[in-house]
Amino acid sequence: MQFVTLRAGHTLYRCPTPTDLLCPCGRVARALRRAGVAYEEVRVPYRRANREMIEQLTGQRRVPVLALDGGEAVCDSRRIVELIDAGGADVARPTG
Ligand SMILES: N[C@@H](CCC(=O)N[C@@H](CS)C(=O)NCC(=O)O)C(=O)O
Questions:
Q1: Nearest-atom index, ligand 1, CA of 48
Q2: pLDDT tier at 87 (50, 70, 90 boundaries)?
Q3: Count of structural domains within the chain
Q4: Is 57's C-beta closer than 6 angstroms to any atom of ligand 1?
Q5: 45, 62, 64, 70: which is deepest, by most CB within 10 A?
């Protein structure tokens, strides 16, 4: 699969689960909406074996990954939600 950039702001790379209620990807989507953060979504393949673009971006293949408009990519739903909750609608400058 080819890496595609859809960056009009922040980009959330997430699994194909079609609801925000069941998995870590949905938890991040809910946190972004709650904080009023504008973002694009990219659904990645279900199988990790087919997530080469996530590996190129982060060095690992799990999602969610939030690619910030400043260029950094943050992995792990807990870290991402902490970042969103700490920064409110301004998550462009992560602090850690
Ligand atoms: N601890 C991680 C878990 C992430 C996770 O399990 N992501 C799922 C999608 S919601 C995944 O990538 N599953 C594919 C796999 O583990 O093979 C987090 O909270 O972000």
A1: 17
A2: confident
A3: 1
A4: no
A5: 64
